[in-house]
Amino acid sequence: MINSTLSKEILSHVVGLETSLEVWKALGSTLAQHSKARELQLKHALQECKKGNSTIDDYLRTFKNICDSLGAIGCSVTDEDKSYWLPQGLGPNYESFTTTMLAKPLIPSYQEVMASLKIRNLRTSSLHKSPMESAYICGRANHTAIQCYKRFDHAFQSDEIPEALASMTIGDPHERAWYSDSGATSHMTNNEGNFSKLQSYSVTDKDLNPLALSIPSPSFSSNFGDESSRNTDASNNPDHPSDEIQGGMPHSNSTQSLNLSPNVPPVHQPCVSITPLSSPPSPPPPPPRSQEVLAYRSGGNAIRTEEDYADVNWDEIGFGLMPTDYMYVMKCSQDEKFSCGELNRYGNIELSPSSGVLNYGQGLFEGMKAYRKVDGGLLLFRPEENAQRLKFGAERMCMPSPSTEQFINAVKQTVVANKRWVPPPGKGSLYIRPLLIGTGAILGLAPAPNYTFLIYASPVGNYFKEGLAPLNLVIEDEFHRAIPGGTGGIKTIANYAPVLKAQTRAKSNGFSDVLYLDSVKKKYLEEVSSCNVFVVKGNVISTPSTEGTILSGITRKSIIDLARNYGYQVEERPIPVTELTHADEVFCTGTAVIVAPVGSITYQGKRFEYKTGLGAVSQKLYSTLTAIQTGLIKDKMGWTVEID
Questions:
Q1: Burial 411-447 (b: 16+ CB within 10 A, else e)
Q2: Which of 28, 315, 338, 348 could bond to 402 as cystine, CB 3.0-4.6 Å?
Q3: Which residues face 437 on adjacent strands?
């Protein structure tokens, strides 16, 4: 009787059972399994729910449907879970909003998050009603002509120019001719009545110089064959700007001529001049701004800033090199101290094949970031720590190093010179890479005779492709990152290439990165390829002690201080690999990754999983640290340095 009422899918689970009791037990077990699978499916959908390109209303509707579906099967989503997962799925455009919500001591209620989100959207929409401007050179939006790199490409031609020229072609002999205004092919008319005055005129240099500047010597001659017209000083040519700037500002000389059209051919025929077609010309508008930064309220007053940004899709930047405008260079010899440095255009450097850095790896580097605040200001995070670490490494590598003051001033100049490359708030940061390398030629093994301190920068997003998703690590017991008495505790360039073999192998097997063990006993945790590691058990946070084989990370040091302020017990000690089997959490720290939660670690074929997301220690520390770095909360630790 019971079997006759069952569907074919369910019937397969009770075939062969003789009593009704056995059938009911089998049905109960089967249906319970389906319910659990549905629960896990919906919980996964809640965690993976993303706004993407959909509207905020569609995203909220999708999020609510998932929560309602969980409630329908008896697994109601708590208010705290909603408050956590809703901001997480908003995406990079809402990163500052998400950080603000999650950095609060008590996570706000779901209704408070919804109300704050609506206010944020209303404020954003009110700021972006005007159409986006575009560069007239290439026609692309979100940047101006002065920022358009196409202005250096003399072969580039906008799509509008051929269209304008084509429109002048007379296909029918009975059609009226179209007249252009002396090279301004975008301004045409076929009605001669629009000309208030139609006459021939001869062209002079002043006519060809629309800015009517006072020029001591002519930039070019109307005589195209004049040899002097082609021997103009390169410094007067905007196509060959000075490659160096001092103190963050380009060289300028108001007495030099401005060559706007260095190769204008002679004009032997009369030209048609079009005077205003309607009303007298109005004064030129002020230079346009490329983008307005989102306004935020502070103390009841709106803070609104306008900044010029590079032509970059800030929503799609990862952790890859994106060359900026300038780099900082300072040099000295072995027996001297670093003195004066300068900002140069970013580009290649000249290096001897026998330089110390190429032959013997005599080089150090640092990594740090600059952040843009919501009011437009720029912040550095603990730059004095990078300066001191570089100095410590230089002593180990027998290299002179800049003073802390020189280091910080050089970093500030580099950031200011590349200010337009600092991403908008919540979109990323400007990664700063100081280098100290032996550039002098040397054949035998010895310190190089000359050294170069160089800083370049690049805008970056997330270091790992997973973004803020949990990492999947594998423990390496064949290769080792450092040995006792070696250079594992300093940031030398020689420490990083040896990890590439193990890292490449791990990534090819689907892992995010490698966690290394000590090289002596092969049983204690050390660090990941480029970041420190922490292990959480209850109220205790442990991290391997730095005893010469592990880099003393600046983010590591900051996380230790924050954790202690939150009341956690922090231990710096050797951590046996066996502790990973019963740890609550594992996370990594570093300048590039900031704080990255670890979802799983695989060791000798066994996979161990850890808590991440809501309520995780790593999430709490990440939210607080990034809020300090970006100026969203008051820096009570005195870690940030504002750039004037």
A1: bbbbbbbbbbbbbbbbbbbbbbbbbbbbbbbbeeeeb
A2: 338
A3: 363, 452
Residue 217: what pLDDT? 41
> What pLDDT shows up at residue 387?
98
182-233 pLDDT, tens digit each? 444 445 555 555 554 445 445 454 444 444 444 444 433 334 344 444 444 4
Measured from the Cβ of residue 628, the count of other Cβ atoms closer than 10 Å reads 22
pLDDT for the residue 455 = 98
Separation CA 54–CA 152 (nearest Å): 38
- Residue 189, amino acid: T
Q: What is the pLDDT of residues 497-548, one digit of tens each?
A: 999 999 999 999 999 999 999 999 999 999 999 999 999 999 999 999 998 8
Count of residues in the chain: 644
And the tokens for 274? 């079009």
CA distance 320 to 535: 29
Q: Is 88 helix (H, G, I), strand (E, B) or coil?
A: helix
- The residues carrying an active-site annotation are 491
What's the pLDDT tens digit per position in 615-644? 789 999 999 999 999 999 999 999 999 997
Q: Which uninterrupted H or E stretch holds 125?
A: helix 110-127
Q: Residue 389, by phi and psi: left (phi above 0), alpha (psi -120 to 50) or beta?
A: alpha
Task: Note the pLDDT of residue 469.
Answer: 78
Q: Write down the pLDDT at residue 83.
A: 85
605: its two tokens: 């074929």
Q: How many Cβ atoms from other residues are within 10 Å of residue 365's Cβ?
A: 17
Q: Which residues, other chains included, contact 250 with Cβ-Cβ below 8 Å and sequence gap of 6+?
A: 241, 242
Domains, the chain, ordered by start: 3-127 (no CATH), 324-460 (3.30.470.10), 471-643 (3.20.10.10)
Strand pairing category for 585-590 and 569-572 = unpaired
Among candidate residues 82, 105, 30, the one with its CA nearest the CA of residue 633: 105
Which residues does the chain have with pLDDT short of 70? 1-15, 18, 29-37, 104-105, 125-307, 464-468
DSSP-derived letter for residue 548 is: S
What is the Cα–Cα distance from 544 to 555, expressed in whole angstroms? 14
- Token pair 């390109």 in the structure block, residue: 53
In this prediction, residue 644 carries a pLDDT of 79
CA distances from 297 to 106, 143, 167, 374, 375 (A): 21, 26, 51, 10, 10
Q: Which helix (H) or strand (E) holds 412?
A: helix 404-417
Burial of 633 (0-12, 13-18, 19+ CB in 10 A): middle
> How many Å apart are CA 516 and CA 488, to the nearest integer?
12
d(CA 46, CA 63): 7
Nearest CA to 617 out of 532, 542, 551, 557 is that of 542
- pTM confidence score: 0.57
Distance separating alpha carbons of residues 70 and 68, to the nearest angstrom? 5
Based on its alpha-carbon atoms, the radius of gyration of the chain, rounded to whole angstroms, reads 32
